[in-house]
Amino acid sequence: MTDKPVLEPTAEHPITVAPTGKHVTVRINGEVVADTDNALTLQESTYPAVQYIPMRDVVASKLTSSDTTTYCPFKGDASYYNVTTSAGDIVEDAIWTYERPYPAVGDIAGHVAFYPDKADITVA
């Protein structure tokens, strides 16, 4: 059994989580699947900022759990969701979540994020 590395943010690899402070709408194939004024922006090092949406502001009826999992040494174990549109299109692994994130990013618990190549994310 291999222990997973756990890393803390540093000056060389900073991670911040802060309220977005703007309205965030997420559409997949033109359909609204998330709409919130309570998003969090996670900024990790030099990567693009990611909007984390409270799960309560996502249309849960469009989601099905995926078997996909990944691991981030800064955030923890991620699980994924597929999104099914009203037309019956299934967009696989469009959403990820850290159900039990590491303490440094604990604020993202109960939130999900969308892949920008699978969803249109508007911050306004």
Automatic annotation (TrEMBL):
Residues 24-117 form the DUF427 domain. It holds the Pfam family NTP_transf_9. It comes from the Bacteria. This is DUF427 domain-containing protein. It comes from Mycolicibacterium agri.
